[in-house]
Design goal:
The complex is a heterodimer of chains A (about 375) and B (about 130).
Chain A: H1 8-13, E1 17-21, E2 24-29, H2 33-42, E3 45-48, E4 53-58, H3 62-69, E5 83-89, E6 95-104, E7 107-112, H4 117-130, E8 134-137, E9 141-147, H5 151-158, H6 163-167, E10 174-177, E11 180-183, E12 192-198, H7 202-211, E13 215-216, H8 219-228, H9 265-276, E14 282-289, E15 300-303, E16 306-316, E17 321-329, E18 337-342, E19 345-352, E20 357-358, E21 361-362
Parallel strand pairs in A: 3-13
Antiparallel strand pairs in A: 1-2, 3-9, 4-7, 4-8, 5-6, 6-7, 9-12, 10-11, 11-12, 14-17, 14-19, 15-16, 15-18, 16-17, 18-19, 20-21
Helix pairs in contact in A: 2-8, 3-4, 5-7
Chain B: E1 10-11, E2 16-20, E3 26-30, H1 32-38, E4 41-45, E5 52-53, E6 58-64, E7 68-72, E8 77-82, H2 92-95, E9 104-108, H3 120-126
Antiparallel strand pairs in B: 1-2, 2-3, 3-9, 4-6, 5-8, 6-7, 8-9
Family (chain A): Belongs to the GcvT family.
Function (chain A): The glycine cleavage system catalyzes the degradation of glycine.
Organism (chain A): Chitinimonas prasina
Chain lengths: ~375, ~130
């Protein structure tokens, strides 16, 4: 039985086209995915992300817990509210999920993906027990992402009593206000907020955001925006069998201190050495394609040094060309041309450094 | 959301519509239901003028932001004309699927092939409209 978020009725009211996403009935668009994409790049749009799960973490040894659990190091979080992005790895060095951890007054809050929530909680439970840490999944909360160059101002207009708190947030910082939590994070490459709140308050806030001129945007626009921003999608760019180093997540691993024994460390450390030695491994790059058709996930990529695969591809509404994220042989370099099997014929695509778009502008060469 | 199914057209299960013109040629496009499932169309490939296609043979591709779909010849025949404007104005497939968003005109190899196709009521039933 598909689950519904507290905003389901608001999606119907906004003519949302509902599809099944990871067991949730979610809006794919509200008419035009491209217009919603443009609203986020040029003004302000909002996404229901209530299907994602916030988990509060409490306990004297919560820091040690995270230092074991994830590849990045929460010791980097220097002040209350500061957040970091990380992979949570298994013993084989595969990615169980990607997540954001916030340092909070009570310990930490971690936000995980919808489709992986049950798996994540099952994985975390024994590790939490060994550090005597308490995990509280906050299924009582709804979450709305407000994104775009005017997102902060419009969110402040919709919630004037929180305007000061919002104004004080640094990028990648989140702070609570009562049962609400305002975080300056997102998945679009634009400035904006991810705001969680008690489920019963979600629809009034959604309507206040509409009144402030924020456009509802669906999962379709969310995908083209994150792809332009060069951000990974769990299940496409990485999964339980994919190394973070093959998924462009090397930067999320805190190798120092060398004594920190996070799960999967020994495996990814060996792989890192093999990469430095030029082993037959894959890495993540961006592709730009100006020919006929559109790059899609699972298309084969052929380079001089071997084969790879597109992990996500789409038509970029901001750039008006097709873009993709791909895993290709290590020897492939930015500026190279590779061949992509586009519906049966090999077509040339250019290798670029991601992201493709940041703050409304093209950023690759 | 309601879908538009004009009563003067014929339909096939792969979501193409057919309009029999006064000169006996047949104009083909994709239905309102099909464009709605695809979402914003960003690329269309049409067949070559003069191509001889069998019924159900691939006649082109329509790609939206979301996915790619083949377009099929609903009946056998020769391609008489294609909608060149779809090279730039792909959005007309979404905004005017039965008008400016047409794909190609085909000369039926056997006009009797049209008789077996669905009418609006049958197509409406087919898609659960």
């Amino acid at each position: 039985m598909a689950q519904r978020t507290p905003l389901f009725d608001a999606h119907l009211a906004a003519n949302g086209k509902i599809v099944d996403f990871a067991g949730w009935e979610m809006p794919i668009n509200y008419g035009s995915q491209i217009k919603e994409h443009e609203a986020v790049r040029g003004d302000a749009g909002m996404f229901d992300v209530s299907h994602m799960t916030a988990v509060d973490v409490r306990g004297e040894r919560a820091t040690e817990f995270f230092q074991k659990l994830i590849g990045n190091d929460v010791a980097k979080l220097g002040f209350e509210g500061k957040a970091l992005y990380s992979g949570m790895l298994n013993e084989a060095g595969g990615v169980i999920d990607d997540l954001i951890v916030y340092k909070t007054s009570w310990g930490y809050r971690v936000v995980v993906n919808a489709g992986t929530t049950d798996k994540d909680l099952a994985w975390m439970a024994p590790i939490a027990a060994s550090f005597h840490v308490e995990l509280t999944p906050r299924r009582d909360l709804a979450m709305i992402a407000v994104q775009g160059p005017n997102a902060i101002a419009k969110a402040q207009a919709a919630r004037p009593d929180a305007a000061e708190l919002i104004a004080g947030l640094q990028v990648f910082q989140g702070l609570p206000m009562g049962d609400w939590f305002f975080a300056r994070t997102g998945y679009t490459g634009e400035d904006g907020l991810e705001i969680s709140m008690p489920a019963a308050e979600a629809i009034p806030f959604w309507n206040a955001l509409i009144a402030a001129g924020v456009a509802p945007a669906g999962l379709g626009a969310r995908d083209t925006l994150r792809l332009e921003a060069g951000m990974n999608l769990y299940g496409n760019e990485m999964d339980d069998n994919t190394s973070p180093l093959a998924a462009g997540m090397g930067w999320t691993i805190a190798w120092e201190p060398a004594s920190r024994d996070f799960v999967g460390r020994s495996v990814v450390e060996k792989e890192k050495a093999a990469r430095a030695a030029g082993g037959a491994l894959l890495k993540q790059v961006g592709l730009v394609y100006e020919g006929k058709g559109v790059l899609r996930g699972h298309m084969k990529v052929v380079a001089e040094s071997g084969e790879g695969e597109i992990t996500s591809g789409t038509f970029s509404p901001s750039l008006q060309v097709s873009i993709a994220m791909a895993r290709v042989p290590l020897a492939v370099k930015v500026g190279d041309t590779v061949q992509v099997d586009v519906r049966g014929t090999l077509q040339p695509a250019r290798v670029v450094k991601m992201p493709f778009v940041r703050n409304g502008k093209k950023v690759y060469e | 959301m309601s879908t538009h199914i004009p009563s003067d057209l014929k339909y096939v299960a792969s979501h193409e519509w057919l309009r029999v013109e006064a000169d006996g040629s047949v104009t083909v496009g994709i239905t309102d239901h099909a464009q709605s499932l695809l979402g914003d169309v960003v690329f269309v490939e049409v067949p070559k003028v003069g191509a001889q296609l069998a019924a159900d043979e691939q006649a082109g591709v329509v790609e939206s932001v979301k996915s790619a779909s083949d377009v099929y010849a609903p009946i056998a025949g020769e391609i008489l004309a294609v909608n060149e404007s779809l090279a730039d104005a792909t959005e007309s497939v979404n905004t005017d699927p039965y008008g400016a968003g047409w794909f190609f005109k085909i000369k039926p190899a056997n006009p009797a092939d049209l008789d077996g196709l669905m009418d609006a009521a049958a197509y409406g039933k087919e898609i659960g409209a």
